[in-house]
Amino acid sequence: MKFPENFLWGGATAANQLEGGYDLDGRGLSVDDALPGGKQRMAIIAGPNFDWTIDEQQYVYPNHQGIDFYHHYKKDIALFAEMGFKAYRFSISWSRIFPQGDEQEPNEAGLQFYDLVITECVKHHIQPVITLSHYEMPLYLAKHYGGWKNKQLIGFFKHYAETVIKRYSDRVHYWLTFNEINSAAHFPVLSQGLIQQNGANEPRNIFQAWHNQFVASAYAVKAAHEANPDAQVGNMIIYATSYAYDADPINQLANLKHNQAFNFYCADVQVRGHYPSYAPALFKENGFTESDLDRTSDELALLAKYHVDFISFSYYMSSAIDATGRVTENISGNLMGGVKNPFLSASEWGWQIDPTGLRIALNELNDRYQVPLFIVENGLGARDTVQADGQIHDDYRINYLRAHIKAIQDALADGVNIIGYTPWGCIDLVSASTGEMSKRYGFIYVDLDDQGRGTLKRTRKDSFYWYQKVITTNGETL
Ligand code: BG6
């Protein structure tokens, strides 16, 4: 099975994890700038004492420096071009454009930076695929407005989205609204700005925040279509294929419910344009009722009219569900939980490796929605060793990616409409969950350690040359 001629091979990154320059040229702080690095990062943020204070005596803040893409973007994009990228997925840092988030006037210096990045992509015939919000709302909106549960954020985001869409839509055709919007079920801090102190413990707030994001996303679809009739807007979900642990109907039902609540809920609204029939039951399971949510008829009409054009999703792992309590071995490290699947191995960070799960995901999403699918994240977080001669032999990463690309090929043969593949962290960057540099995904090595020490030098890994060949042969040489 051949990959389509215009298949979007490329790579993906996010502003907060690679740009650095966190306080340059008028940029405001984003929620990520207040997240300490290290394996305990998510536990600290989820704790009752976390209040966004930046304490540089106690913690390292790796997002402040990222990999300094802010000053290296030309060279980095040239390296992507050397691999033959057709698309580069990156995000705009909202607080670079609106430092607090609630201003009327954008920060021109911030807009100019993305002008330069986009121009560089276009120069190399790389399609920019832009995420409007990748885990980094302006910190001010989280602290002073209480994050996405506050409906005022819809207007702020609308203004931000319209500003950047108007500015770049002559050169940008692919837009994604909120990165991994459904991840708030497990860690609402990143995409919704919710911590314990402003209501993360109440599921109703998370669902209200989702509703507000759905509406904001619909405004972005409207703006993109009005600015350029050829524009394509996708939602973005984290998809972790989920299996019932065994044939026990109790586990099968639990898995079905899990899929509704996690894998499908947000996509159901954003793709179909209306709430699914199971929504009231899901609200009830979460301790509130429909009338507790503030959803106006105008908003519901907007959702119906401006649903997304395609689905983009990240795929790293699968999970297994046991509701009977018979299975006691949980998977560790993976923030989404679930029990250990005895048929799968896992990365050092506990993410279960399952290429067949990707083929299943593609079929499931295709069957359910029948819209184009774009895999905008996939990859293996692993430690790399630089050899004495400076080379990095990352055959483990090549094996992971090869198996997943093969699964995409099989899904194409199954009849699934897939438009592109942009593996995560095409250049090493700061990990979202742990703030580490040592959890690396890239084809390009960046000399930087977990404490932020290093030369920032970029080096092509073995996987760089391998992926280059994959792209040149349009997936025929794996
Ligand atoms: C996705 C996020 O969840 O997974 C990225 O969209 C993130 O921002 C990626 O970096 C990999 O996760 P991690 O925690 O290994 O960086």
Describe this entry's structure for a reader.
It is a single chain. This protein is an alpha/beta fold. The chain has a single domain, classed as Glycosidases (TIM Barrel), CATH 3.20.20. Helix content is 39%, strand content 12%. It is built from 15 helices and 12 strands. The strands form 3 sheets. The protein has an 8-stranded parallel β-barrel, surrounded by 5 helices. Helix 14 links the parallel strand 9 and strand 10. The longest helix is centred in the middle third of the chain and has 25 residues. The chain is globular. The two termini are 13 Å apart. The relative contact order is 0.14. Bound molecules: 6-O-phosphono-beta-D-glucopyranose. One of its GO terms (cellular component) is cytosol. This is Beta-glucosidase. GO terms for molecular function: beta-glucosidase activity. It holds the Pfam family Glyco_hydro_1. Keywords: Glycosidase, Hydrolase.
Give the domain tally.
1
Mean pLDDT: 97
Percent helix: 25-40%
Low-confidence stretches: none
Q: State Rg.
A: 21 Å
Which superfamily, in CATH terms, is the homologous superfamily?
Glycosidases
How does CATH name the architecture? Answer: Alpha-Beta Barrel
Please report which band the strand proportion falls in: under 5%, 5-15%, 15-25%, 25-35%, 35-45% or over 45%: 5-15%
Secondary structure tally, helices:
15
Structural class: alpha/beta
> What do we call the CATH topology?
TIM Barrel
**What is the CA–CA distance across the termini?**
13 Å
**What's the SSE pattern?**
EHHHEHHEHHEHHEEHHHEEHEHEEEH
User: Strand count, sense and closure of the main sheet?
Assistant: 8 strands, parallel, barrel
Topology, number of strands: 12
Largest sheet, order of strands side by side?
Answer: 1-2-3-4-5-7-9-10
* CATH C-level: Alpha Beta
> Which small-molecule species are bound to the chains here?
6-O-phosphono-beta-D-glucopyranose
Shape annotation: globular
